[in-house]
Amino acid sequence: MAKISIWQRIINLFTGKKQPAHEPAQVKDGIWYAKQADGSYLLGIDKSVYDLMGKITFADFPNQLDTIQVDDDLLDIEGDKSVETLKSPIAGKIIERNKDIGKDIDELNKPDPEVNWIMKVQPTD
Asked: E strands along the chain, which residues?
């Protein structure tokens, strides 16, 4: 049996699909983004952010925009070592935000894609 990558597991988890998705997740500036079967992208906090920030103590959305551009502010986070604003690696229409992000800091500090996903975005053409 072929070994499935962590990113493939993330994609399968959020799409409910058992078959491989079209593209593996990519990482840009601390944000992982994985293309879903419907063409949208799921964005989340990459492990590199935890390495840089230490324990995250606060996370919140800096805006409530319906669309986002590349390098727009995506998520404000504070950690033991620094304060950062994570930027969007893609442009598109925001389909869904993780409303629970930042509510349970202990859960947020586990690098778990079920918890640390930020939003789902339909890319613009």
From this structure: 26-28, 31-35, 41-45, 56-60, 67-68, 73-79, 83-87, 92-97, 117-123
Rg of the chain in Å (alpha carbons): 14
Assigned token pair, 19: 């078959």
Burial class (CB in 10 A: 0-12, 13-18, 19+), 76: middle
Distance (Å, rounded) from C-alpha 36 to C-alpha 61? 22
| DSSP strand pairing (31-35 vs 26-28) | antiparallel
Distance separating alpha carbons of residues 69 and 58, to the nearest angstrom: 24
Confidence category of residue 18, pLDDT binned at 50, 70, 90:
low
Which of 8-22, 29-43, 52-66, 78-92 is predicted least confidently?
A: 8-22
Phi first, then psi: give them for residue 46, nearest 5 degrees. -80, 155
pTM, full prediction: 0.76
Secondary structure (3-state) at 87: strand
